[in-house]
Every structure is written in C-alpha cells, then in structure tokens.
Request: fold
Amino acid sequence: MTPILVFDLETVPDVDGLRRLRPEWRELPDDEVAQRAFDARRERVGSDFLQHHLQRIVTIGCAFRDTQGFRVRCLGTRDDPEPRLIQDFFRLIERYTPQLVSWNGGGFDLPVLHYRALVHGVNAGRYWDLGEDDRDFRWNNYISRYHMRHTDLMDVLAMYQPRASAPLDDIARLAGFPGKLGMDGSQVWSAYQAGQIDAIRAYCETDVVNTYLVYRRFERMRGALSDEAYQQDLALVRAALAALPDSHWREYLDAWPVA
Reply:
C-alpha cells in the first residue's frame, strides 16, 4: 500500500519576525508584540488571524499508516527549533513519498510550511517535484490543486467551495469519532504562553487521528476501501492508541464508543 501521512500544524505568532518587520516593536515583550499585531490585523480586515507568513510552527502532528501498522506522534521534541521540525516533515516525504492528507491543509498548513521552509532554508525537493525528476509527478503531485497526492479533505468534500466548508470537529463527531479534546486552535497561543507545550502536542495528535479516521471513511465512501477493510483499519487504530501510555489517548478512546 502507498503510505498515508496525515498532518496538522499548531502555530503561534512569529514575534521575532514581527520585530524585524516592525523595528519600533523591538523592545516590547512577546505578548505585547503579538497583541499589537492582532490589533492591527483586526483593524485592517476585521479578524485578528495573522497572515500565513507571520505564523511560527510549534508542533507538527503526524499519523502514519503503512504495511507496518499505524503510528501517531508529533515530530521531534517539545524543545526542537522550528527549522528542524519542518525539515523532519519534508524528510518523511523524501523517504516515503506518502499520500498526504489534511483538513484545510491547502488553505493553511501547507502555505505556512512553504513560507517557513523558505525563511529557514529548508530542503524539500521531493515535495516540490512537478515532473522534472519523476515523470509520474507531472500528472499527480503535491502542489497542483486538483491532484490527489495531497488530499485536503475539507476542500474535496466541499467541492472547493469555501461557503460549503465544514469544521473537522463537526464532521468527526457526526461520523461517530471523538472530535477535538482539551482545546481548539484559538487557545494555542495562550497555552503556549503558559508553557503548556505538551498539551498543545497532545491536542495536535488527536486532531490528526480525527482526520485519519474521517479520511478512511471517505475512502470507503468513494469505493477505495471495502467495508471489511475499513472496520479492520478502525480496529488497528484503536489497538495502536490503546498501547500508547499518554493520558490523552485514554480520554480519546473513552470518547470513541465501539459501534
């Protein structure tokens, strides 16, 4: 089988970058730099959500499925710098050429990765291949919008219509999966300021499992996965999560009743 790599980012304001762009903020503490950026953004567009290039990645969650089984973790450690996390992500693509899966990855996660990889000088040759090195990538690559080597489930299910987009939490819960536990994306900055990196990483991991489960349900819906294979895959995920020692997986499994 083609390996499947489901991914998700958690980000915070790039306060160091903001100081470089706004020298008058150079002496301000992190929270005030971020707040000024939020306020300026809200005044311009009505939302305090910062642009993609002003987001700093603090964790990359991955769920990986191949012939060896199912694994889930955040890349690196809680102390690894952003460039190392990004390079680790693109090394996975270099090594496995996986099927990439995301929820809103085309609208958020991948553009953030593009900008941050560019800023840090990260190598991502396999990811950016459009057929120059591998002819197959001319017809199916990670970059072109309607190609499937990266499947943005939110976009595909909404027929690429933003007004039809749905939140992952809603779709996961409607499909009988646990959905988000512990926090949501709007709480990541405050959790980061409080030093709750482990909680952010746990939240990110549960999000990629939700996305993976919705993706397998999508694969069954479109006829790429039989009912029997789908049920076997759910059982595989349950067993893999039950073997993990972290408390958030016990909470996740408790919220996922056996059908």
